[in-house]
Amino acid sequence: MRKNIVAGNWKMNNDLAETQELISHLKLQMVKEPTAKVYVAPSFVNLYNTFQSLKGTVVNVAAQNMHYAENGAYTGEVSAKMLKSIGVNTVILGHSERRALFNETDELLAKKVNAALENDMEIIFCFGEELKDRKSDKHFEVVKEQLENGLFHVEKDAWKNIVLAYEPVWAIGTGETASPEQAQEMHKYVRSLVTDKFGKDIAQDVSILYGGSVKPNNAAEIFEKEDVDGGLIGGASLKAIDFLNIVNSFS
Ligand code: PEP
Questions:
Q1: Which domain holds residue 227?
Q2: For a surface tag, which of 21, 154, 191, 228 has the fewest beta carbons within 10 Å of its beta carbon?
Q3: Is the pTM for the entire model greater than 0.95?
Protein backbone atom coordinates (compact mmCIF):
# COMPACT_ATOMS: atom_id res chain seq x y z
CA MET A 1 0.00 0.00 0.00
CA ARG A 2 1.39 3.36 -0.94
CA LYS A 3 1.97 6.03 1.66
CA ASN A 4 0.40 9.44 2.03
CA ILE A 5 3.20 11.99 2.25
CA VAL A 6 3.37 15.71 2.93
CA ALA A 7 6.76 17.38 2.49
CA GLY A 8 7.53 21.01 3.25
CA ASN A 9 10.14 22.65 1.05
CA TRP A 10 11.44 25.64 2.98
CA LYS A 11 13.61 26.75 0.02
CA MET A 12 16.01 29.63 0.79
CA ASN A 13 13.93 30.88 3.72
CA ASN A 14 14.54 31.14 7.46
CA ASP A 15 17.79 31.93 9.24
CA LEU A 16 18.83 29.88 12.26
CA ALA A 17 16.56 31.61 14.77
CA GLU A 18 13.57 31.50 12.40
CA THR A 19 14.21 27.84 11.67
CA GLN A 20 14.32 27.02 15.36
CA GLU A 21 11.10 28.90 15.95
CA LEU A 22 9.31 27.09 13.14
CA ILE A 23 10.54 23.73 14.45
CA SER A 24 9.37 24.48 17.97
CA HIS A 25 5.88 25.32 16.65
CA LEU A 26 5.86 22.13 14.59
CA LYS A 27 6.87 20.06 17.60
CA LEU A 28 4.24 21.66 19.81
CA GLN A 29 1.37 21.29 17.38
CA MET A 30 2.14 18.09 15.49
CA VAL A 31 -0.24 15.25 16.23
CA LYS A 32 1.36 12.00 17.44
CA GLU A 33 0.08 9.90 14.57
CA PRO A 34 -0.46 12.02 11.47
CA THR A 35 -2.28 10.37 8.55
CA ALA A 36 0.68 11.16 6.33
CA LYS A 37 4.43 10.70 6.50
CA VAL A 38 5.84 14.18 7.08
CA TYR A 39 9.09 15.73 5.84
CA VAL A 40 10.61 19.17 6.01
CA ALA A 41 13.48 20.35 3.82
CA PRO A 42 15.46 23.25 5.30
CA SER A 43 18.40 25.04 3.70
CA PHE A 44 21.79 23.31 3.93
CA VAL A 45 23.01 25.53 6.79
CA ASN A 46 20.01 24.58 8.89
CA LEU A 47 19.96 20.92 7.98
CA TYR A 48 22.03 19.50 10.84
CA ASN A 49 20.29 21.61 13.42
CA THR A 50 16.85 20.71 12.07
CA PHE A 51 17.69 17.03 11.98
CA GLN A 52 18.92 17.10 15.59
CA SER A 53 15.88 19.05 16.79
CA LEU A 54 13.38 16.75 15.09
CA LYS A 55 15.06 13.47 16.06
CA GLY A 56 12.54 11.15 17.70
CA THR A 57 9.54 13.04 16.29
CA VAL A 58 7.32 12.02 13.37
CA VAL A 59 8.85 14.75 11.20
CA ASN A 60 11.52 13.52 8.79
CA VAL A 61 14.17 15.78 7.32
CA ALA A 62 15.15 16.02 3.66
CA ALA A 63 17.77 17.99 1.75
CA GLN A 64 16.64 20.28 -1.07
CA ASN A 65 19.42 19.22 -3.42
CA MET A 66 22.80 17.47 -3.62
CA HIS A 67 25.72 16.97 -5.98
CA TYR A 68 26.29 13.68 -7.77
CA ALA A 69 29.98 13.34 -6.85
CA GLU A 70 31.12 11.71 -3.64
CA ASN A 71 33.56 14.56 -2.89
CA GLY A 72 36.09 16.77 -4.68
CA ALA A 73 36.58 20.17 -6.23
CA TYR A 74 32.95 21.29 -6.45
CA THR A 75 32.92 24.54 -4.53
CA GLY A 76 29.61 25.25 -2.87
CA GLU A 77 28.22 21.75 -3.30
CA VAL A 78 27.14 19.02 -0.89
CA SER A 79 27.37 15.26 -1.45
CA ALA A 80 25.16 12.32 -0.54
CA LYS A 81 27.89 11.09 1.81
CA MET A 82 27.83 14.41 3.68
CA LEU A 83 24.06 14.33 4.01
CA LYS A 84 24.09 10.78 5.27
CA SER A 85 26.83 11.60 7.76
CA ILE A 86 24.46 13.98 9.56
CA GLY A 87 21.56 11.53 9.40
CA VAL A 88 19.72 12.94 6.38
CA ASN A 89 18.62 10.10 4.09
CA THR A 90 16.19 11.88 1.79
CA VAL A 91 16.82 14.38 -0.97
CA ILE A 92 14.57 16.42 -3.26
CA LEU A 93 15.86 16.26 -6.84
CA GLY A 94 14.67 18.02 -9.98
CA HIS A 95 12.76 20.86 -8.37
CA SER A 96 11.67 23.27 -11.11
CA GLU A 97 13.66 26.10 -9.50
CA ARG A 98 16.81 23.98 -9.75
CA ARG A 99 15.94 23.13 -13.35
CA ALA A 100 15.11 26.71 -14.38
CA LEU A 101 17.44 28.88 -12.28
CA PHE A 102 20.43 26.56 -11.94
CA ASN A 103 20.27 24.89 -15.33
CA GLU A 104 19.76 21.38 -14.04
CA THR A 105 19.12 19.15 -17.02
CA ASP A 106 17.57 15.70 -17.16
CA GLU A 107 21.05 14.29 -17.80
CA LEU A 108 22.46 15.94 -14.68
CA LEU A 109 19.47 14.78 -12.67
CA ALA A 110 20.00 11.21 -13.84
CA LYS A 111 23.51 11.38 -12.34
CA LYS A 112 22.15 12.76 -9.07
CA VAL A 113 19.53 10.02 -8.99
CA ASN A 114 22.28 7.42 -9.40
CA ALA A 115 24.39 8.96 -6.64
CA ALA A 116 21.44 9.07 -4.26
CA LEU A 117 20.54 5.44 -4.96
CA GLU A 118 24.15 4.28 -4.64
CA ASN A 119 24.09 5.83 -1.19
CA ASP A 120 20.76 4.18 -0.39
CA MET A 121 19.00 7.52 -0.11
CA GLU A 122 15.34 8.19 -0.65
CA ILE A 123 14.54 10.56 -3.54
CA ILE A 124 11.62 12.93 -3.94
CA PHE A 125 11.83 13.39 -7.70
CA CYS A 126 10.12 16.53 -9.05
CA PHE A 127 8.91 17.13 -12.58
CA GLY A 128 6.27 19.25 -14.27
CA GLU A 129 5.45 21.31 -17.30
CA GLU A 130 5.64 25.05 -17.84
CA LEU A 131 2.61 27.15 -18.74
CA LYS A 132 3.61 27.31 -22.42
CA ASP A 133 3.68 23.49 -22.51
CA ARG A 134 0.19 23.24 -21.07
CA LYS A 135 -1.13 25.95 -23.37
CA SER A 136 0.23 24.11 -26.38
CA ASP A 137 -1.11 20.81 -25.07
CA LYS A 138 2.38 19.38 -24.62
CA HIS A 139 2.18 18.77 -20.87
CA PHE A 140 1.98 14.98 -21.05
CA GLU A 141 4.84 14.85 -23.53
CA VAL A 142 7.07 17.12 -21.40
CA VAL A 143 6.44 15.16 -18.22
CA LYS A 144 7.09 11.86 -20.01
CA GLU A 145 10.39 13.17 -21.32
CA GLN A 146 11.51 14.44 -17.89
CA LEU A 147 10.75 11.08 -16.32
CA GLU A 148 12.26 9.01 -19.11
CA ASN A 149 15.45 11.03 -19.28
CA GLY A 150 16.00 11.77 -15.60
CA LEU A 151 14.61 8.80 -13.73
CA PHE A 152 13.39 5.83 -15.72
CA HIS A 153 16.86 4.37 -16.20
CA VAL A 154 16.77 3.01 -12.62
CA GLU A 155 16.40 -0.67 -11.71
CA LYS A 156 13.05 -1.96 -10.43
CA ASP A 157 14.55 -2.39 -7.00
CA ALA A 158 15.21 1.36 -6.73
CA TRP A 159 11.52 2.23 -6.57
CA LYS A 160 11.30 1.45 -2.87
CA ASN A 161 13.41 4.62 -2.47
CA ILE A 162 11.51 6.85 -4.89
CA VAL A 163 8.66 9.29 -4.35
CA LEU A 164 7.36 11.27 -7.33
CA ALA A 165 6.26 14.90 -7.14
CA TYR A 166 4.27 16.43 -9.98
CA GLU A 167 4.72 20.18 -9.83
CA PRO A 168 3.34 22.17 -12.74
CA VAL A 169 5.68 25.16 -12.92
CA TRP A 170 2.80 27.56 -13.56
CA ALA A 171 1.33 26.66 -10.16
CA ILE A 172 4.46 27.03 -8.03
CA GLY A 173 4.46 30.08 -5.80
CA THR A 174 1.88 31.73 -8.04
CA GLY A 175 -1.25 31.15 -5.99
CA GLU A 176 -2.64 29.33 -9.02
CA THR A 177 -3.31 25.68 -8.26
CA ALA A 178 -3.96 22.91 -10.73
CA SER A 179 -7.55 21.82 -10.28
CA PRO A 180 -7.98 18.50 -8.48
CA GLU A 181 -9.07 17.09 -11.85
CA GLN A 182 -5.94 18.37 -13.62
CA ALA A 183 -3.76 16.90 -10.87
CA GLN A 184 -5.58 13.56 -10.99
CA GLU A 185 -5.35 13.42 -14.78
CA MET A 186 -1.57 13.89 -14.72
CA HIS A 187 -0.98 11.61 -11.73
CA LYS A 188 -2.97 8.84 -13.42
CA TYR A 189 -0.92 9.32 -16.58
CA VAL A 190 2.35 9.20 -14.62
CA ARG A 191 1.25 6.02 -12.87
CA SER A 192 0.47 4.52 -16.27
CA LEU A 193 3.99 5.39 -17.46
CA VAL A 194 5.46 3.66 -14.41
CA THR A 195 3.19 0.65 -15.06
CA ASP A 196 4.32 0.40 -18.67
CA LYS A 197 7.99 0.53 -17.82
CA PHE A 198 8.24 -1.14 -14.39
CA GLY A 199 5.00 -3.05 -13.89
CA LYS A 200 1.75 -2.64 -12.03
CA ASP A 201 3.00 -3.49 -8.54
CA ILE A 202 5.64 -0.77 -8.55
CA ALA A 203 3.23 1.75 -10.07
CA GLN A 204 0.59 1.03 -7.46
CA ASP A 205 3.11 1.35 -4.64
CA VAL A 206 4.81 4.59 -5.62
CA SER A 207 3.53 7.73 -3.91
CA ILE A 208 2.87 10.61 -6.30
CA LEU A 209 2.71 14.01 -4.62
CA TYR A 210 1.19 17.15 -6.07
CA GLY A 211 2.96 20.49 -5.61
CA GLY A 212 1.90 23.97 -6.60
CA SER A 213 0.19 26.47 -4.30
CA VAL A 214 -1.28 23.84 -1.99
CA LYS A 215 -2.86 25.61 0.98
CA PRO A 216 -4.96 24.50 3.95
CA ASN A 217 -8.11 25.48 2.05
CA ASN A 218 -7.45 23.42 -1.08
CA ALA A 219 -5.38 20.46 0.18
CA ALA A 220 -8.28 18.15 1.07
CA GLU A 221 -9.95 18.30 -2.36
CA ILE A 222 -6.63 17.60 -4.11
CA PHE A 223 -5.51 14.83 -1.75
CA GLU A 224 -8.80 12.97 -2.04
CA LYS A 225 -8.14 12.23 -5.70
CA GLU A 226 -7.34 8.60 -6.32
CA ASP A 227 -3.83 9.01 -7.69
CA VAL A 228 -2.75 11.93 -5.50
CA ASP A 229 -0.88 10.64 -2.47
CA GLY A 230 -0.04 13.93 -0.81
CA GLY A 231 1.79 17.14 -1.48
CA LEU A 232 5.07 18.96 -1.76
CA ILE A 233 4.42 22.27 -0.09
CA GLY A 234 6.41 25.49 -0.54
CA GLY A 235 4.99 28.74 0.82
CA ALA A 236 2.42 27.17 3.11
CA SER A 237 5.07 25.04 4.84
CA LEU A 238 6.67 28.14 6.35
CA LYS A 239 3.84 28.61 8.82
CA ALA A 240 3.48 25.68 11.22
CA ILE A 241 -0.28 25.99 11.56
CA ASP A 242 -0.83 26.01 7.78
CA PHE A 243 1.56 23.13 7.22
CA LEU A 244 -0.06 21.05 9.94
CA ASN A 245 -3.52 21.75 8.58
CA ILE A 246 -2.32 20.45 5.24
CA VAL A 247 -0.78 17.38 6.91
CA ASN A 248 -4.18 16.73 8.47
CA SER A 249 -6.11 17.10 5.22
CA PHE A 250 -6.43 13.43 4.38
CA SER A 251 -9.90 11.97 4.75
C1 PEP B 1 7.37 24.05 -4.33
O2 PEP B 1 8.22 24.90 -4.47
O3 PEP B 1 7.68 22.85 -4.34
C4 PEP B 1 5.99 24.49 -4.18
C5 PEP B 1 5.05 23.63 -4.39
O6 PEP B 1 5.79 25.81 -3.81
P7 PEP B 1 4.39 26.51 -3.46
O8 PEP B 1 3.64 25.56 -2.55
O9 PEP B 1 4.77 27.78 -2.77
O10 PEP B 1 3.68 26.72 -4.75
A1: 5-247
A2: 21
A3: yes
